[in-house]
Amino acid sequence: MSHNTFGHLFRVTTWGESHGPAIGCVIDGCPPLIPLTEADIQGYLDKRKPGQSKFTTQRREPDQVKILSGVMVDDDGIQKTTGTPISLMIENTDQRSKDYSEIKERYRPGHADFTYDAKYGIRDYRGGGRSSARETAMRVAAGAVARKIVPGVQVRGALVQIGPHRINRDNWDWAEIDNNPFFCPDKETAALWADYLDGIRKKGSSIGAVIEVVAEGVPAGLGAPIYAKLDQDIASLLMSINAVKGVEIGNGFAAAELTGEENADEMRLGANNQPVFLSNNAGGVLGGISSGEPVVARFAVKPTSSILTPRQSITKSGEEVDVMTKGRHDPCVGIRAVPVGEAMVACAVADHYLRHRGQVGD
């Protein structure tokens, strides 16, 4: 199986399966002398790990990361990167493969079961193997490293819609995302979601969501025209996340409803004759190159395909059957996709920062 690597100068390769002994990644291209410990990574993994509320899968994984290579302690007792490949590993401790025994020969609707079989002639039915969202833990780990590369950058994500229920943007408060299980920046909407999603969960069903990621402190000039656009790579990495079905930058599809006058990000001179943008409809990227404004991306996540309601399907041998997926699943996979989206944006920005530095210097 190829295509397990993303990035150019900041390059990440993930490995492992949902029900294997461990998952991991190798990060190549990280500059040397950057302070890095397991604690720097663990905080982000703790945001993503399963079993933290009744609204996510009850699989119990501590997601404790181990740094296997690429760091050493200097003369001052500080552990820093060495410029060599950084290898990270997380052991799987709570696999329940027997939950999937009934679907060994059955294709689950909405999953990659059929397409994996069609491509490889074999599939890992135990939780989906490589197609499982379990793999995204390593993206979060890589994103923690990426955040340390670009000086002053801050990447934050929030859930802005579950099903038909959107947040009130007038209530946006970044501090609020740590006060509810949804990464929701709107206290009132978080309370509504709790009741709504509880009903979805009790029915054994699922629902989709929209996540917004904002990267602040991204310097102007990252990215390149035509085939190396910053927003192009952000969209590609976000689209690679499991269950993502759509990505937009800035106003995105809403820009189609605006006039040129409304959509234009007008400019004036600010302090020290530096440009000041009067709006950010472009989401911080113009012509594929960062403008210095916050980079804003949103992505839509489909409903979790594993539900208790029987759905029509077929077996590998061609028999028509109904499939009901048992096991432990997220009623809204979009919740735990928030730290994953943050990580992918952080990786894209770090990669372009290193590419920019390599081409034009600091």
Task: Give a verbal description of the structure.
By secondary structure, the protein is an alpha+beta fold. It is built from 7 helices and 18 strands. The protein has helices spanning about 40-50, 115-120, 135-145, 185-200, 230-240, 260-265, 335-360, and strands at about 5, 10-15, 20-30, 65-70, 70-75, 80, 85-90, 155-160, 165, 210-215, 245-250, 265-270, 275, 285, 290, 295-300, 310-315, 320-325. Strand 8 (about 155-160) and strand 9 form a beta hairpin. Helix 3 (about 135-145) crosses helix 7 (about 335-360). The protein is globular and about 70 Å long. The mean pLDDT is about 90.
Keywords summarizing the entry:
7 helices; 362 residues; 23% helix; alpha+beta
Indicate the percent of residues in helices: 10-25%
Uncertain stretches: none
Strand content: 15-25%
Largest sheet properties: 5 strands, antiparallel
- What count of helical segments does DSSP give? 7
Distance between the termini: 38 Å
Radius of gyration: 21 Å
* Succession of helices and strands: EEEHEEEEHHEEHEHEHEEEEEEEH
